[in-house]
Design a protein that fits this description.
There is one protein chain. The chain is mainly α. It has a domain of 95 residues: Death Domain, Fas (Orthogonal Bundle). The chain contains eleven helices and no strands. Helix 2 packs antiparallel against helix 3, helix 4 crosses helix 5 and helix 10 runs antiparallel to helix 11. 16% of the residues are buried.
Length: 179
């Protein structure tokens, strides 16, 4: 979408009451005149800064003038608006249209939230169940070699699992080896 069309789309939003105050409009006009003299000449800047005309009229005339001048002039207006009134620039209707995501596109932030919405406690609970089932499956075999290996692994794991849990597992393995 060209800047001219965007400006036409945003014109009502910008000219509505209390969106832009006189100081901000004057700063934008001065920036377009001084920093970008090819955008507004001195005579045009004086015309749009005339305090006798209402702010609404001056702003409407400025926007229409920039639209007649072309896309580059409108682009420079948006740049000046962003510098002098960033919050208003971010709230422009044309910016909201540009920010609207494609419905077929995957929103990775939302997907990341959806994958992680359970939290760390849920992860630890699932991991504990999986580790318990793996240990049970490993120790279920009545082969004495397997029990001996499990006993060695559990004997060297006071850091991994708590001391009480390790003692219970060791007693369970001893009972299995007696049977």
């Amino acid at each position: 979408q060209s800047y001219s069309h965007r400006l036409q789309h945003d014109m009502y939003f910008l000219t509505s009451t209390s969106r832009l105050n006189e100081q901000v409009v004057d700063k934008i006009i001065l920036q377009l005149n001084r920093v970008y003299p090819q955008i507004l000449t001195n005579e045009e800047a004086e015309k749009f800064r005339n305090p006798r005309a209402s702010l609404h009229t001056r702003l409407s005339d400025l926007l229409k003038h920039l639209q007649k001048k072309g896309d580059r002039h409108c682009q420079e207006f948006y740049r000046a608006l962003q510098i002098n009134a960033e919050q208003l620039f971010n709230d422009l209707p044309s910016r909201k249209i540009l920010k609207t995501p494609d419905p077929t596109e995957i929103d990775t932030d939302k997907e990341q939230y959806m994958l992680n919405d359970r939290g760390p406690v849920f992860f630890l609970a699932c991991f504990s169940v999986a580790a318990g089932l793996a240990l049970f499956w490993y120790c279920r075999n009545s082969d004495t070699k397997v029990v001996g290996r499990a006993r060695r692994i559990l004997g060297f794991s006071p850091i991994i699992i708590g001391r009480h849990v390790r003692n219970i597992c060791m007693l369970y393995l001893e009972d299995l080896s007696r049977d």
